[in-house]
Design a protein that fits this description.
alpha+beta; 17% helix
């Protein structure tokens, strides 16, 4: 096991800020706008993404102040119940580690390649549009497989 395999030996709560931040694969899925069916509670993803996202890198352009600028933006590090975030993408490292799974082969920490997320087709960069360009989110629901 390499020293960079910290995710195999540490719990999320015990990770340093640097380790925590490196878990984000940069897919951008968590920043897609979501709709919830009021009757069933089911969550639907849209292809509309937060305006703060750089669509080339799928990283937040105002990361440190995102929760102030976007009140619905969640700071996962402030929570101790990550498994409650069932709206997080199934491929999300935080979600995977919280339920005892390992990181996928395409994750940059495993592959050593920051472009492996795009190469694996996990990134939203090829289809997402900024939320400011959308009139009705219901017209932008996607089926993410």
């Amino acid at each position: 096991m390499t020293p960079m395999s910290f995710w195999k030996t540490k719990k999320l709560i015990d990770m340093s800020v640097q380790e925590w931040e490196s878990l984000c694969d940069g897919c951008g899925k968590c920043c897609l706008n979501k709709l919830e069916d009021e009757d069933t509670g089911e969550i639907y993803l849209t292809n509309a993404v937060c305006d703060l996202i750089d669509l080339n890198t799928c990283r937040c352009t105002r990361y440190r102040e995102r929760t102030r600028l976007v009140p619905d933006c969640v700071d996962l590090k402030q929570s101790t119940t990550w498994t409650a975030f069932d709206w997080m993408p199934e491929t999300c490292a935080y979600r995977l580690l919280a339920i005892g799974e390992d990181l996928p082969d395409w994750h940059p920490l495993v592959s050593g390649n920051p472009d492996s997320v795009k190469e694996a087709g996990i990134s939203i960069s090829s289809f997402a549009i900024k939320e400011s360009e959308v009139d009705d989110l219901e017209d932008h629901v996607i089926d993410w497989q």
